[in-house]
Task: structure prediction
Amino acid sequence: HAAQEYLLVLDRQSRRLKKLTEDLVEASKASTGNVTVNLEPIVVNEIIHQAIGDYDEKLAAGKLEVIVNTYEGNLMALADGRLLWRVLDNLLNNVCKYAMAGTRVYVDLGARDGKVVLSIKNISRDPLNVSADELMERFVRGDESRTTEGSGLGLSIARSLTELQGGLFRLEVDGDLFKAVVSFPQVK
Result:
């Protein structure tokens, strides 16, 4: 019985280590620009809906309701579909890990000044006792307790991958409100 539990713990730890290693490799590639970037017109609405669809179960488990506002119909941006997917994946993963259960998550997509702007807002479960700048540093995590899974690299990777595509990435923290804003050049 005890042996069985040890095996489960070892399995969990080795998976965590594998994920950490993958994150480290990805972070180093992303920050050194050692990633192939294929820029092309991407319908951002589609990729957002696909990414949110992928997170259906995790969001439901966290009792999170996603409200998507894409007022302006389909918007096209110059980006790399695969890398943009990774950025969304990291941001949604963050939401699932850190958002307060029973709250709404707002995903807004619009166009401003020749850019397609995507923002994801959620209410943090734990007090955000670090600044937006600090949250983007590597290995920094918003929860001091450090009990949740994660390398603290997600936002750093998301920022690097966004910038590699010629996009802009910023975070805003206002009390317990966490907001990530990603923008890319618009394609008419």
